[in-house]
Fold:
Amino acid sequence: MDPRAASDRPAVVVVGGGIAALELVLALHDLAPGRVRVTMIAPEPEFVLRPLDVARPFTRGHADRLDLAGFMGEHDGRFRRTAVTGVDAERRTVRCSTGADEPYDVLVVAVGATARPAFGHSLTFGSDLLAVGGLLADLEEGYSQSVAFVVPVGCTWTLPVYELALMTAQDVWGMDVHDVQLHLVTPERVPLEAFGEEAGAAVAELLVAAGITLHAGVRADVTRNNHVDLGDGRDLHVERIVALPILDGPRVAGLPSDAQGFLPVDRFGSVVGVDGVWAAGDATTNPVKQGGLACLQADAVATCIASHAGGHVSPMPYVPELRGRLLTGHGDRFLRRGPGETGRSEADDRPLWWPPSKVSGHYLSPYLEARGLVHLPVREDRRTAGIDVQLRPG
Ligand SMILES: Cc1cc2nc3c(=O)[nH]c(=O)nc-3n(C[C@H](O)[C@H](O)[C@H](O)COP(=O)(O)OP(=O)(O)OC[C@H]3O[C@@H](n4cnc5c(N)ncnc54)[C@H](O)[C@@H]3O)c2cc1C
Structure:
């Protein structure tokens, strides 16, 4: 370590207080200790682990939170609570909704995406926890007897709706309610297509065993209550419909964006055509919006910033390896897809990585695990899990 006077260290401003932002701060703390001054800017004072929202209707009310000011203090950084309204890349400042502009030498945008309902006549999963919880109660008490879980066209991270369907099945069958029909409707050719053939076949088996009817390869629409238009004139009549949302990009004023508002980045996370600006996570044009991939992007960005700041690390590009821990209500299923078109597809009921958290981050998972914020399955299975790649020499 070669700590410099604070004024000599480049000012790194991280916009966002979510998964990518936390992973980035942890990575910089490890890869460039004492070499950068890090400020995190976010409108909310706490980080909330959203992926556990899936399980929340079933566990009824558990929340996992982290105080961001405390987190930044612990990592030699500073937290500023406000929203960023734009970037002046010429002057190297960000504009904030309250207070003065924030100057930066290096900017990392990790503001995530905005979810909006895919259809006007369905519940939107992820934004209406109470309604999803109410749906379970209705099924258990016999007020509703049929549900369709729908993946809209354009949604790339579909695992949460499979979890919801499987856990709903487990819940209602476990309550001895047997006259319920559950459907899963998706444009994917096979279940969880992003994970490849092996994982898809394993999840298809789980759906059959859970009594869930799969409608794959369907570009569904929901234009009236209780009806899912399956295309080709086919129509599914159900009492309740739950759909995943569509994600829109953040359209950050002063930075480039694609037609959907996402930030274009190269394979190191550098925002195309803008000096000193990087981006990671759901805010970028990376097609699959997933927490583990957001962490891998943040790690790539951190190696570049640390390398420029004189840390003992070389810039490493983003190499996507997809990892998913599927909650089924009766044991978890671990799914993994290696990088590239031909990446190996795996499914196992034992952990394929460690710690086997739902959001797999090289730094974030162990950090959250140490604070009791990750709910792990059996610890003995560590032997079977893969070893993570080191980002810096040992
Ligand atoms: C129900 C559900 C289940 C999921 N399950 C999984 C899972 O099992 N595994 C997995 O890996 N992923 C899962 N995901 C996806 C995962 O949550 C996202 O991919 C991940 O959160 C993206 O991280 P991010 O840091 O890019 O964005 P986010 O985590 O959304 O964080 C964005 C941050 O930016 C802040 N922000 C927004 N606007 C501004 C602004 N103008 N100025 C400053 N700050 C701003 C926000 O307050 C927030 O702190 C799930 C998502 C949902 C909705």
